Structure formats: C-alpha cells, structure tokens
C-alpha cells in the first residue's frame, strides 16, 4: 500500500479522537474460551452443540448480529459482544467499564446465558491458554473469509500461525490515554511489563497433548506467526507516536482487499498483532485465558499498575528501555521460569513490586486482586 500524507492524517486523527480526560478513563476486558466435551476435547464450530448452534440459540436475546454467508458469527447487546476466534474460540468482549465489578457482572450475565445452553449437550467452557486436550489438526476454521485468508497468509510467514489461530485463547485488558504523550508513555511501559504480565497469567499446562513447561508459550507462538505484523513497532524510537504506529500498520503486507472507507481503519488495526496494540485505546494482549477469578484479578492488576504513572515509571526507571531487553526478559522466562532474571532482577521480585503498586492504587477494588491470587 502507498502510505500517503492524507492516509497518515486519517489514522493519526482517529487515534487522537481516542484521547480522554483522566476522569473518563475506563478499563476494557476480553476473555476467550474453548467449548469442550466431557473429555475436554474441543468441540468444533459445526458440531452439535458447537459455536454455530450456540449462537443460533442465543440470537433472539441479542439485538445485533454479525453474519457472513448466512452464518451468525457474533452477537451484541451494546454492552457485551460475543464473537468467535478462528478456531471457534468463544470470546466475550465487555464495553469498557469504570469499575471491575461492572465488568464482572456483565461477564456473569454472559455465562448465565451460555452455560445452560451448552450443558444440554454435555459441553462447557474452559479457559486455558491453549487447547486442553485436542490438537490443531482436529480444529476447523469458522466460515469467515478473513480467517481463511489469514490462515493462508500465515502459513507462508511463519511456523506457528496454524497453532495461533486454532489453538490459543487469551485475556485482553485495555486502558485509556489522555494525549499522544500519555499514549507513548503507557505503551512503552506496557511493552516493558509484557514479560511479567505473561508470566503471572501463564495458564498453558499442555501443548498439542504434551506437558508444557514454557511459561511464555503464547509469546513463543506469536514470535513465529508473522514478524511484519507481530513485532514491536519501533516503540523506543525517538519519534514513536500516533504517526509511527500508523506507518507500522499500513506497511504490513496486505491480507484482505481494501474495505469500504468507513471500515478501513478498524480493520487494518485488527490485522496487526503486537503484544500491545493501539486502537482508540491501548490493548494489552500478553495474557493467557484464565478462570474467572484469576482473569478479574489480572484486570485489577493492569488497572492498578497504570493508575499511577509517576510511580510506575519510577519502578521501571532502572530498567533498560529497549526491545532487546524485552526479548531477553521473555527468553529468560521461557528458559528458567520462576528463577528467571528479568531487567537485572528476579521475576518474582518484579511481580511483587507490581502487585504492591496495584494494591497502592486500587482501593476497594483490591478485593478482586486478592481473591484471584488465592484462587
């Protein structure tokens, strides 16, 4: 794609319109699930009691539907969005909330609808970072053209795109920014925090049916999908900001034909996959999917960490702020787990310092953090 000044302006204006006053800051939450049978085998999209049948059964409860080729692929009521990842992982996205209690209540309403609908088939939802028992060879893609093209593209760009699309499930938390400068600070901090956030949320005991000891399996998979779309976008360069991120997005090789003008920006932003992603908010994508209590503890941790930026920057001030340091931290955790040294300190010490920071800022919402830590 030819990256013109007008196109860059379109994207940077879009990012700029995401700026909010701190009093309006909210936290977003997304959690992906596998539908499994009694033996914890994955239930594919078109199987009886699979995602296709589930969304059809729930459709009457939701005023908005996302369809393609006559298939229902998403449902929304304006507060929650139920959608499908490529291998029919069921994702619940909750409209950003001022409080964690509101997000949890919305999630519980979702489970109150979904769990009984699955139970009649002997199926249930499982939150894990990777398929509990099945192999990617058992998983069909959902009938979505975007995913078919992504699948073909990633087979040519890396060795683990098939695993990513069919086998992974994640927990994403998003935070707001007040200005471009605030975005840059938060984005850089989120990248530095990535290895620790991935470690504390690690929930992948098996990989392709075998025991897994890699506490950052999710990071390893994404490293081997498509470097042009998944690497950090020059985050520590002096000129990093909205325009630099737009250039990163627009220079990625094309997967889909150019969409209509109204859909162009959100689509292009969804087709890059750095561990920290910009939309009109900052999406932190390092975490595995986790059971409910742990997932909301993780949401509380992220919210608490970024609630006091001066304190967070002070905590990180002694670290090397570079992409090389982040990759080295990931490598150390992959190789050494809980004994890893990251940025010159033990990973366990780093996590305790992050927990202390979150506890300092969360106030009454500390209850979510503590419940999740003991669950």
Structural key phrases:
9-stranded antiparallel beta sheet; single chain; alpha+beta; 375 residues; 15 helices; Creatine Kinase, Chain A, domain 2
Report what the structure shows:
The protein is of the alpha+beta class and 375 residues long. The chain has one domain: Creatine Kinase, Chain A, domain 2, CATH 3.30.590.20. Helix content is 46%, strand content 16%. Strands 1, 2, 3, 4, 5, 6, 7, 10 and 11 form a nine-stranded antiparallel sheet that branches. α6 packs antiparallel against α11 and α11 packs across α14 (347-362). The model has no long low-confidence stretch (mean pLDDT 95).
* Tally of separate helices: 15
Q: Count of DSSP E strands?
A: 13
CATH class: Alpha Beta
- What is the mean pLDDT? 95
- Percent of residues in helices comes to 40-55%
Q: Which radius of gyration do the C-alpha atoms yield?
A: 20 Å
Into which percentage range does the β-strand content fall? 15-25%
CATH topology: Creatine Kinase, Chain A, domain 2
Query: Could you say how many structural domains there are in total?
Result: 1
Largest beta-sheet characterization: 9 strands, antiparallel
User: What order do the SSEs take from the amino end to the carboxyl end, as H and E?
Assistant: HEHEEEEHEHHEHEEHHHHEEHHHEEHH
Estimated structural class: alpha+beta
Task: Report the span from N to C terminus.
Answer: 48 Å
Bulk shape:
globular
Ranges where pLDDT stays below 50 over 5 or more residues in a row are none
CATH architecture group name: 2-Layer Sandwich
């Amino acid at each position: 794609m030819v990256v013109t000044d007008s196109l860059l302006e379109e994207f940077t204006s879009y990012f700029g319109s995401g700026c909010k006053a701190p009093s309006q800051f909210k936290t977003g939450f997304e959690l992906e699930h596998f539908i499994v049978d009694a033996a914890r085998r994955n239930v594919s999209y078109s199987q009886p009691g699979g995602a296709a049948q589930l969304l059809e059964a729930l459709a009457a409860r939701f005023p908005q539907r996302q369809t393609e080729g006559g298939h229902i692929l998403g449902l929304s009521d304006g507060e929650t969005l139920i959608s499908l990842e490529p291998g029919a992982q069921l994702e619940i996205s909750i409209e950003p909330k001022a409080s964690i209690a509101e997000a949890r209540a919305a999630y519980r309403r979702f489970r109150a609808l979904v769990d009984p609908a699955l139970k009649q088939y002997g199926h249930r939802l499982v939150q894990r970072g990777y398929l509990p028992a099945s192999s990617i060879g058992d998983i069909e893609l959902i009938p979505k053209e975007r995913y078919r093209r992504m699948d073909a593209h990633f087979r040519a760009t890396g060795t683990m795109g098939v695993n990513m699309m069919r086998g992974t499930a994640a927990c994403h938390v998003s935070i707001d920014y007040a200005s471009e400068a605030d975005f840059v600070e938060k984005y850089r901090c989120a990248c530095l925090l990535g290895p620790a956030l991935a470690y504390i949320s690690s929930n992948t005991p098996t990989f392709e049916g075998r025991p897994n000891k890699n506490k950052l399996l999710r990071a390893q998979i994404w490293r081997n999908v498509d470097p042009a779309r998944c690497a950090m976008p020059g985050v520590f360069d002096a000129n990093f900001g909205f325009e630099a991120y737009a250039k990163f997005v627009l220079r990625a090789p094309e997967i889909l034909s150019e969409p209509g003008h109204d859909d162009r920006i959100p689509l292009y932003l969804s087709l890059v996959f750095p561990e920290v992603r910009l939309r009109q908010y900052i999406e932190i994508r390092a975490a595995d999917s986790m059971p409910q209590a742990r997932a909301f503890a993780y949401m509380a941790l992220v919210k608490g960490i970024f609630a006091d930026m001066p304190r967070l920057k002070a905590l990180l001030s002694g670290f090397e702020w570079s992409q090389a340091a982040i990759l080295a931290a990931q490598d150390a955790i992959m190789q050494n787990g809980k004994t890893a040294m990251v940025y010159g300190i033990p990973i366990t010490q780093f996590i305790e310092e992050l927990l202390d920071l979150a506890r300092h800022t969360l106030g009454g919402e500390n209850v979510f953090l503590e419940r999740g830590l003991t669950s």
